Amino acid sequence: MYNIEIIKNFKSRNIEVTFFKTLEDVKDKILDLIPINSTVGIGNSKTLKEMDISRLLCERGNTVFDKTLAKSKKESKHIKKKSLLTDWYITGTNAISKDGHIVNIDHSGNRVAAMIYGPDNVIVVVGKNKICNTLQDAIDRVRNIAAPLNAKRAGYKPPCLELNKCVDCKTDQRVCFNLVIIEGQYEKDRMKLFIVDEEIGF
Ligand code: SF4
C-alpha cells in the first residue's frame, strides 16, 4: 500500500504523510507524539471511535475536547468551540486523492474549521478505502458514499439514504452543509496525514 507518489504529492502541499499497517499502530504513534500536557480536540469520526483515542488521552492526563462525550447540546456546542484552539486536533476525513487533496463533507463545520485553522498541529487519520484516484472521484465519494452513511449513523433520513446518491437535497434532514477541499497547508508540517492499510470508517 506504501505509495511514494502519494507521499510526494502531499509533501509538495506541505502535508506530511506516514503509512501504518494497522489502526493500533496509529494509536501508539499518536500517544507517543502528543505531550501529556497538551490540549487535544477530537473531530467526530468512526475511525477515531474505533481507536478509543479520547478515553486513552483523557486517562493519561491530556485535556480532551470531544463533543461526542457531551451530555447536552449546550455542552456539545461549548466543546466544539473549545476544540478550535487546542494544541493538537485529531480527526478522520472522508476521502483523499492520490494527487494530494483532503476532501471532507461536514454538518455544522466545526471539524473542517479546526482542520483549516486554529489548532497548532492536526493529525488526519484515513483508511485505504478512502484513497481515490482523482479529486473528482474523492468529491463523488464524499457526496454519494460518506454523506449517506454518516446520515444513517447520526439518525437522519435524507433522500441519499434511499437513492444511494446525492440529490443536493434541501430537506431538514440534510447532513452536509460544508464540502471542503483542503489543497495544502500554508504552515509546513502543521498537518500530518496517517494512512492506514485497513478499511476503516466511511
Ligand atoms: S445534500 Fe442531501 S442528498 Fe446530498 S448527500 Fe447531503 S444529505 Fe444526502
Automatic annotation (TrEMBL):
<dbReference type="InterPro" id="IPR037171">
    <property type="entry name" value="NagB/RpiA_transferase-like"/>
</dbReference>
<dbReference type="InterPro" id="IPR003741">
    <property type="entry name" value="LUD_dom"/>
</dbReference>
<feature type="domain" description="LUD">
    <location>
        <begin position="5"/>
        <end position="196"/>
    </location>
</feature>
<dbReference type="InterPro" id="IPR009501">
    <property type="entry name" value="UCP020269"/>
</dbReference>
<dbReference type="InterPro" id="IPR024185">
    <property type="entry name" value="FTHF_cligase-like_sf"/>
</dbReference>
<protein>
    <recommendedName>
        <fullName>LUD domain-containing protein</fullName>
    </recommendedName>
</protein>
<dbReference type="Pfam" id="PF02589">
    <property type="entry name" value="LUD_dom"/>
</dbReference>
